[in-house]
Design a protein that fits this description.
The structure is a homodimer of 189-residue chains.
Chain A lengths: L9 H20 L5 H8 L3 H7 L3 H22 L7 H18 L1 H7 L7 H20 L9 H17 L6 H14 L6
Chain A binds a DNA duplex (30 and 30 nucleotides) through helix 1 and helix 3.
Chain lengths: 189, 189
DNA sequence: GCTAAATGCAACAGATGTGTCGCAGATGTT
DNA sequence: AACATCTGCGACACATCTGTTGCATTTAGC
């Protein structure tokens, strides 16, 4: 019923975590899953879910917000404005892939257009374009490249890479993503 | 109630078409839309929808099957096994983009993994890889390229390009997709 | 124009999901 | 040990969607 009041008791806090983790798992497999299914996966009663989250929406909001906070943190940690562009790009990519592998539902949801996260997502996209512009200024991206398109392609590549089941190492996946982003599949002359 | 019996009367056939087109529009905007909303968009009563399609699933099936048939036809028309690889690739890309712009829901649905369309979609993907292999043999794709990955990237690029609202010309979009697929965003040496 | 088919409308039954409530018992905190 | 909190359980109300049926009316096809 309530989302925030006064500090929760230890077991209640544990329930909240269990619910969030179960929600991530269940919703990743089926975004239309019922709260009943989520509760079952979390090992709690459905009423407990309602006690900890006012709405289904509130639950999803918490999930997405948590992940977006982590996303911001992870991006900031790569120093995208000061580090060498390719280094930052690689580090961001690997971190985002790690995040996406652990929180597939929340990450997908947060990137959905037309959602309440649109503005925040747009801010992130702007930072991405800024980083790409730096890579452009160092000659790693063509001077005439369409950076908005490149950013979209970058996102799509990350999305595809995250679906890859054969290669679980985020760093190798990041290398593959960036290689593809910069050079495509054509032969290197 | 019934899906196929004996030839439909002219007005009934018109209803079926109206329902399918409305379903495409409505479901593209909201995949969880109710049959009521679809009926309203089609300008018919909800019961008429049930008369023409046994299930919601049957309606979606018809939508997806229709589009997949068109997809097969469009691919075949590009002669992917005989035409010069890059020519076929461009033609297929432009046609698929056209299809995707007109049937965004059905196309997305048909590409969903783990669905009942998986086998058919897999067959299409195999043809895609075959075409890419031909492009590889002509030197347009690097000899050591991972063609499965390249195919996924190709799909993702088409998906992104279809979201592009500023450039509605499928041929120009196809050129952009293929350029990106082959050369990425890096500078041409 | 006659007949069969198709439609809209209203009503119904059933399923599912959501959110609330009260209470008895377990669990943590002090 | 005492107290407040948390939980599971059962029950309820409510909304929404799906699928069906019957009937009066319209429409297509011959």
């Amino acid at each position: 019923m309530v989302t925030q009041g006064r500090p929760l008791r230890a077991d209640a806090e544990r329930s909240v975590r269990a619910i969030l983790e179960a929600a991530e798992r269940v919703l990743a497999a089926n975004p239309a899953a019922s709260l009943e299914q989520i509760a079952e996966a979390a090992g709690v009663a459905r009423t407990t879910v309602h006690r900890r989250f006012a709405n289904r929406q509130a639950l999803v909001d918490t999930l997405v917000t948590t992940v977006m906070d982590q996303l911001d943190a992870v991006i900031a940690a790569a120093n995208p404005d000061t580090a060498p562009p390719l280094v930052a790009l690689h580090q961001v990519t690997a971190s985002v892939l790690r995040l996406k592998l652990g929180w597939p539902f929340a990450m997908t949801e947060s990137f959905a257009p037309e959602s309440k996260w649109a503005e925040r997502q747009h801010r992130t996209a702007t930072r991405c374009v800024t980083l790409l512009a730096r890579a452009q200024s160092t000659g790693h991206i063509a001077p005439d490249a369409d950076l908005d398109w490149t950013c979209k392609v970058y996102y799509a590549l990350i999305g595809e890479a995250a679906h890859n089941t054969t290669e679980p190492d985020p760093d190798l996946l990041a290398t593959k993503v960036i290689n593809t982003l910069l050079h495509g599949a054509g032969p290197r002359p």
